Amino acid sequence: xxxxxxxxxxxxxxxxxxxxxxxxxxxxxxxxxxxxxxxxxxxxxxxxxxxxxxxxxxxxxxxxxxxxxxxxxxxxxxxxxxxxxxxxxxxxxxxxxxxxxxxxxxxxxxxxxxxxxxxxxxxxxxxxxxxxxxxxxxxxxxxxxxxxxxxxxxxxxxxxxxxxxxxxxxxxxxxxxxxxxxxxxxxxxxxxxxxxxxxxxxxxxxxxxxxxxxx
Length: 215
Ligand code: 1Q0
Fold this sequence. Notes:
By secondary structure, the protein is mainly α.
């Protein structure tokens, strides 16, 4: 096996990252949120180059957040809550149309946040599907119910074509490197509520700050 452990996807790693996301008082640590996405992108990269346009966009967004986390104001970016407070308080967010803050942490994270809803829906379909379930259909249904409404026609079209090239359910479960199908399903059952909680907390926070439609 030429793929080093470092690059190899493992569902456990994603699960752990989303678990670590939540602080005691239900704030979301940006560092672990980003780590969760890094793990997911590793998975996407094992699926082949047709998914490159998706992985590229996700990587760009993660890099923006990592730069903010490691930058001079990094201490303001410890949690999503502190990021929102800091960026909004210092007029660092474009609220209605794109302007000076096209790469704000808030608008960048919002894109990943919307994608997290897709992930939750998709993983839940995968978890509850039967052995002959079609991953392409589960993926497309989850996408149409969530992310699709934010994407223009060309991207929806490209995404739809990429979904058709997803491996079958069995192969899909194997790449997760957990063990038997039953073990993957069990781990998904642990991961989905965590992902869902992180999603809900972020959703409520963004709604409270009128930031669900950032350009
Ligand atoms: C397994 C198949 C993966 C399918 C992913 C579905 C999402 C499709 C999204 C396609 C859009 C990508 C092209 C760029 C779009 C941007 O215009 C858009 C908006 O940003 P902006 O700056 O133009 O306003 N960007 C986004 O909407 C962000 C999209 C990020 C998608 C990240 C998907 C990462 C997927 C990981 C694979 C997870 C596999 C699940 C199984 C893992 C087990 C835990």
